[in-house]
C-alpha cells in the first residue's frame, strides 16, 4: 500500500494512493482513527483498504501533507555513508552511530516550498536525499534481529541543512524552519524492496547529485532501530532518517548549495519521488 495524508475540500484526511487517484478513509472510520498515526497506534494498518471509501478522488486535487503529520519524533542518522564531512574545516569520525533530532516544523510535504534561510545562512543551504523508515509498532530495547518487524513502511526525505550553522551547532543547522521535506507518501514494507536494495537518487534541477543504495549504509536500519530503542521508546509514526550519501552541495568543490527556484527531487525505488522547490527568502 501507498498511504498519503492530505487536505481535500478543507478536511484533513488520509487514504490509499492508487495510481493518480486516492481513496480516502470513510467518515465513520475517520472518527475512530482521525490520523494515520492514530491508525498505526491502534494496530489497524492492515485494515486500511476496508476502511477506505470505494470512491476515488484525483491525486492532483488534494494538498499532500507529510505522510504522518506531527510524529512524536524525527530521528536522523548522520555520517551513515562513506563521504567527507560536508562542513568546511570540520572533521568527524564515522565509526560510531551519530544521531540528532529534528523538529516537526522543519519539514514540509511533497510539492510545498522549501523555505530559503534568510541572510548569511542561505549561502550554505544544502540538500540531503535519504531513505526514511516509519515505525509501525511501539518498541523499546529491541534486538537488531527483531527490529524490522516494527517498521510500517518507507518514504523519501530531503534532510535539508544549513552547513555554516552546523559548525557551532548541529541542532541549529538541522532545524531551520521548513528547510526539509518528506513524503510523498508512506509505502508499506510489504510492498517495497528490502531497504538494502532500494536505490536512492537525488536530483537538483534535473541533474543527478546523489546516487546510492541502502546496502551502502555504514550502520544498517536494524542496527539503527536497535540503538535508538535503547535510548528512547519508538512510537508508531516515528520517523528514522537513515543518512545521506556523498554528493551533497557542501561536499562538492566548489560547493553547490541551493538557490531560490531550485527544484529538488529525492527518488527512492519502490517508494516514490519527493519533489519540492526552493522559495525566495521571506522576512
- Roughly how much helix do the residues carry, as a percent range? 10-25%
Give the overall silhouette: globular
Strand content: 25-35%
Spans of at least 5 consecutive residues whose pLDDT stays below 50 are none
Feature tags:
283 residues; alpha+beta; Fumarylacetoacetate hydrolase, domain 2; five-stranded mixed β-sheet; 19 strands; globular
Structure description:
By secondary structure, the protein is α+β, with helices and mostly antiparallel strands. Helix content is 14%, strand content 33%. It contains seven helices and 19 strands. The strands form three sheets. Strands 1, 2, 3, 4, 5, 6, 7, 8, 11, 12, 14 and 17 form a twelve-stranded mixed β-sheet that branches. Strands 9-19-18-15-16 form a five-stranded mixed β-sheet, with no helix packed on it. A hairpin with a 2-residue loop joins strand 15 (199-204) and strand 16 (207-213).
Amino acid at each position: 500500500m501507498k498511504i498519503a495524508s492530505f487536505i481535500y475540500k478543507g478536511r484533513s484526511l488520509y487514504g490509499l494512493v492508487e495510481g493518480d487517484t486516492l481513496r480516502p478513509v470513510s467518515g465513520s472510520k475517520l472518527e475512530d482513527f482521525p490520523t494515520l498515526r492514530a491508525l498505526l497506534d491502534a494496530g489497524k494498518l492492515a485494515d486500511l483498504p476496508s476502511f477506505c471509501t470505494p470512491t476515488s478522488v484525483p491525486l492532483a486535487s488534494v494538498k499532500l501533507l507529510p505522510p504522518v503529520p506531527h510524529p512524536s519524533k524525527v530521528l536522523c542518522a548522520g555520517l551513515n555513508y562513506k563521504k567527507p564531512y560536508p562542513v568546511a574545516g570540520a572533521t568527524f569520525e564515522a565509526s560510531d552511530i551519530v544521531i540528532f533530532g529534528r523538529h516537526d516544523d522543519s519539514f514540509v510535504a511533497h510539492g510545498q516550498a522549501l523555505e530559503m534561510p534568510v541572510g548569511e545562512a542561505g549561502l550554505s543551504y544544502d540538500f540531503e536525499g535519504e531513505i526514511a523508515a516509519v515505525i509501525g509498532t511501539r518498541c523499546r530495547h529491541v534486538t537488531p534481529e527483531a527490529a524490522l518487524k516494527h517498521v510500517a513502511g518507507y518514504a523519501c526525505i530531503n534532510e535539508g541543512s544549513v552547513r555554516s550553522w552546523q559548525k557551532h551547532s548541529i541542532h541549529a543547522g538541522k532545524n531551520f524552519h521548513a528547510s526539509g521535506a518528506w513524503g510523498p507518501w508512506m509505502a508499506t514494507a510489504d510492498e517495497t524492496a528490502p531497504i538494502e536494495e532500494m536505490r536512492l537518487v537525488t536530483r537538483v534541477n534535473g541533474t543527478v547529485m546523489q546516487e546510492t543504495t541502502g546496502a551502502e549504509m555504514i550502520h544498517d536500519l536494524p542496527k539503527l532501530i536497535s540503538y535508538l530503542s535503547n535510548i528512547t521508546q519508538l512510537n508508531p509514526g516515528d520517523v528514522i532518517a537513515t543518512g545521506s550519501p556523498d554528493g551533497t552541495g557542501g561536499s562538492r568543490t566548489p560547493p553547490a548549495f541551493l538557490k531560490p527556484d531550485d527544484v529538488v527531487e529525492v527518488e527512492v525505488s519502490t517508494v516514490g519521488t519527493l519533489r519540492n522547490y526552493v522559495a525566495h527568502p521571506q522576512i
